[in-house]
Structure formats: structure tokens, C-alpha cells
Amino acid sequence: MHYEYLKRLETYVPEHVRPAATERLDLKAAIDAANLTEMWDMILTLDYGVSDPEQLSPEKRDEFLNVMSLLLQAFDK
Amino acid sequence: MLTRPNALFSEIGTQAIERGLADPVLSAFFETVMTAPRGEVQQGLKPYLPYLSLCSDKMKDGAPPPIFYVGRESGQRTLFGEDWATPTSPASGLRTPDPDLERASAEGYGKALDGTPYYGYARTEVHVNGETFEVAFERLIVAVRPALQSSVRFCAYFGVIQDLRRTS
């Protein structure tokens, strides 16, 4: 019973975090679909020095994701 | 009386860089891009990213491609400001806020995307947030791929402001 409780906690995503996390996943999926994954990787590693946006501070992560939103729009056909 | 046109956009050619006539950091960036081994150009961009603006390879109706990245020390950030460079909820791709400058600068991007690095000089008036400035700058535009086998290309723009003064 205790284990089940902990398991439920592991998958719990606080309400206030869920929208941002979903937005992030949606944006990454759109980047992949637009064949821009290499651009995502290049800017993330060269400019931000990480391989996953989760490793960034919230401010830096927002900044990076804004750049990725612009990237998507810039390559929109 | 000596007169001069309001705007001047002139291609100088990358030979001027090779002769040592360009800004030293711009020259170092050019040398890095031109001499990097295949597949290592991207890594070479790293120290220059603060000075670069990056845009796509999509030119529509003769306009320059939209910008998606504005380096922290880049000439465009200096000229157009922090709010322009980092929109908090971007609704569309970034464009130069001055339509005349936007139109006049398109040729350089076209050449770079045709495969020839573009190096030129410009002196023009720009209108930013209701104010008018006269700006003179040199600029280098090169087309790069994010990875060796990538089908995607982007333009790296290195602009160096030589003179900037408010005229109204």
C-alpha cells in the first residue's frame, strides 16, 4: 500500500507545472515535424551548453523556448 | 555642394576581409567558417554566437528571411533594442522593424543563399520606436547547415555598427 502511494506520487504532476511542460513537448514535437531538430540541438548545445532544456534555469529555458518558437515561424513555408 | 544619398547599400566582397580591411572579429569569424573542416563549422560558430543573428533560408516576395536568434552582443540587438530581440510571446517571425532597411538588405541574403558569402557596407536612416537614426555598418552573411548531412540551411549575419547617431 505504501509503495502504491509512492508510485502515484512519482507520476503526479503539479497542476501549475502541467501547462508549461505540455507546451514544451508540443513545441519539441512541432520542431521535429518541421525537420528542425538539428537546429534545436545546435542552439541548445552551442549557446546554452546543455543537451536537454530541463537542465536550464526557468528563465533560460523560457528564453530558449522563445527562440525555438521563432525558429518554427522563421522556417514556416 | 557635396551631397550624398540617404541610403547606401554596397557589396564590397569578401576579398576585402582577406586583405585585412574588415572588423577583426568579423574577419576571424569569416576565416573560421571558411577553413573549418567539413562537419565542424557548427562548433566554430560557438564563440561568435553572441555577435550573430540567425535567420532561416525562406525568402518570400523578395524580403529577407525571418530572424529567429539575435546574439546578446549583436548589432541588431544594439540597434533595435532588447524588447525587439526577445519577444516574450512571439506570435510571428522576427523582422527588421524598419521596412526600408528590410527591403534594402534582402540582396545580401539572396547571395549568401546562392552559395557565396556576402560582405558589404551600408549607411542608411532607420526608424525605431518613433526615432530616426543614421547608422553605418559592415555586414557579413553566410549560409550554414546545422549538421553535415542536414537538408536545412540557415543564414548567419554578422553586423558591425561603425557609426550610429540619432537624427531626430
From TrEMBL, chain A:
Superkingdom, taxonomy of origin: Bacteria
Record's protein name: Uncharacterized protein
Automatic annotation (TrEMBL), chain B:
Annotated protein name in UniProt: Uncharacterized protein
Source organism superkingdom: Bacteria
Ranges for region Disordered: 81-103
